[in-house]
Specification:
Tachylectin-2, Chain A, Fructan_Metab_Enzymes, five-stranded antiparallel β-sheet, Glyco_hydro_32, Glyco_hydro_32_N, mainly beta, Vacuolar invertase, glycosidase, six-stranded antiparallel β-sheet, globular
């Protein structure tokens, strides 16, 4: 399944809902009914970007950003109504939403786009969420055991002055010894991590390779001169808000 942001009226971010399509080859797609629409106080101004995490038992949880009735950006939890449905047609929004609100010091419109979670050696799931402080783009880090309650880690995954708001942050491992993809939770001496951010200020996707320290929850670029937002772009055409997946 693929979930996509859809603007039915092509007018504003408040119209955004989640479309749903399936494919066997990533070329030919079958469009299904909308997965989630803006129908709750915590997402009435838009069901924005989110990410799925597949749990060890095969079940799926989805975190997504909602724009509330007061236009505050919050994170919400959703899950399939029937995990045995191969098309995952129907989705349920958690009754305790929102599960995350902007932390102290972060603007209420500067807190969006949670990543797929990765599993830490402490037995917790970890996510990162795009943000900014003044003109410094950054990615906040949270730990959770159940996707309902969260702990904000000290510091940030990474921050780059002058890059502005980071949207649709992506964070994933790549192998130094193989060309095969890796599950989000893989780490170790033969692994590098990529941080990618979509810069709201210039509407381009930037990425950088670096080293991730799980204990501190921080990522350091291999080369500060080509850091996130000031170095390499994913693509040099019209390309924005990309998202990786591992299958």
């Amino acid at each position: 399944s693929s979930f996509l942001s859809v603007q039915p009226q092509q007018s504003s971010m408040g119209d955004i809902v989640w479309g749903h399509a399936v494919s066997k080859d990533l070329i030919h797609w079958l469009h299904l009914p909308l997965a989630m629409v803006a129908d709750q106080w915590y997402d009435i101004n838009g069901v924005w970007t989110g990410s799925a995490t597949i749990l060890p038992d095969g079940k799926i949880v989805m975190l997504y950003t909602g724009s509330t009735n007061e236009s505050v950006q919050v994170q919400n939890l959703a899950y399939p109504a029937d995990h045995s449905d191969p098309l995952l047609l129907n989705w349920v929004k958690y009754s305790g939403n929102p599960v995350l609100v902007p932390p102290p010091g972060i603007g209420y419109k500067d807190f969006r786009d949670p990543t797929t979670a990765w599993f830490t050696s402490e037995g917790k799931w970890r996510i990162t969420i795009g943000s900014k402080l003044n003109k410094t783009g950054m990615s906040l880090v949270y730990d959770t055991k159940d996707f309902k309650t969260y702990e904000l880690l000290n510091g940030v995954l990474h921050a780059v002055p002058g890059t502005g708001m980071w949207e649709c942050v992506d964070f994933y491992p790549v192998s130094k010894t193989s060309d095969k993809g890796l599950d989000t939770s893989v780490n170790g001496p033969d692994v590098k991590h990529v941080v990618k951010a979509s810069l709201d200020d210039d509407r381009n996707d930037y990425y950088a390779f670096g080293t991730y320290d799980e204990k501190t929850g921080k990522w350091v670029p291999d080369n500060e001169k080509i850091d996130v937002g000031i170095g390499i772009r994913y693509d040099y055409g019209k390309f924005y808000a990309s998202k990786t997946f591992f299958d």
